[in-house]
Amino acid sequence: MSPHDRLQSRSELYLAERRRLGFSCRNEVCILRSFVNHIRAVDHRGPLKVELMADWARSHGGTDLHTWARRLKHLRNFTRWLRQFEPRTEVPDDTIFGTLPERQAPHIYSEQEVADLLAAARRLGPAHGLRGAVFETLFGLIAATGLRIGEALALRNRHVDLKSGMLSIHQTKFGKSRQVPMHPSAVEALRRYRWMRDLARGPAADEDPFFIGTRGRRGGQPLGDRQLHRVFVELRSQLGWSNRGAHHAPRIHDLRHTFVVRRIVQWQRQGVDIDQAMLSLSTYVGHAMVSDTYWYLSAVPELMALAASRFESFTANQEVGHA
């Protein structure tokens, strides 16, 4: 077997192992295919060196250092794994193109802003049509459950069990499925929307999309991501919110962030042991690692005081222990 074929075989084995662990690997498939093709094109033979990886990263993505750094980051896990077979393989670090920007603080919606968004969506024309109900219910569901946008749009009728108040989420960001219980108020809102939808378009099959387009050829078809964002931008402009996040403007995805933050704040007020509850919250929203949920404590202003009080409590206990 040639060195190039061996590298191809190793990359396929790596991806297979990642998939067995529950990762979708969509980005990694493209990254590794590109890297293997580059190695083949330059006819490299011998250990994989950082200089070679840097050349590959520079050959894609123009002149943006962050794009190059992001490509190397995707390659890092593979090269670590590869060292068990090829010990002389080097692993790229953050010093080559610099570190990637940290996650930016989201816009955390107030209760009034969420209410205003749903009311504005409800008023979408045409009068007495289904369009307003579609967007009001969709925005409300994301706010009430913290679903990702793609997860909400991918819902089929069979995934929405209104008797048990449970959503079945499949094909998530990390290739895992989960069950999402809903508050009775969310269940009632979905039941009302489904009644309006079926009244307007007739009973739907189990495999039909739960949220549908209502205009032209898109009528009855799955609601699209671009259509959803276009409507949201229009409503955001109408409502004129002041941006409190680090992104260019409030986003739909910030409804998910808001759900997580409000849940943690509510637990704090109720005296719940947040460290004990974090794992359940992480599972509920579909985070791959509980550290992704803990990120909010240090990155969101609303939770900084909570993080500070936890640290003060910890240091006070340490002082008592050493007294």
UniProtKB/TrEMBL annotation:
Domain spans labelled Tyr recombinase: 104-308
GO molecular function, one term: DNA binding
InterPro entries: DNA_brk_join_enz, Integrase-like_cat_sf, Integrase_catalytic, Tyrosine_recombinase_XerCD
Alphabetic keyword roster: DNA integration, DNA recombination, DNA-binding
Example of a GO biological process term: DNA recombination
Family per record: Belongs to the 'phage' integrase family.
Protein name: Tyrosine-type recombinase/integrase
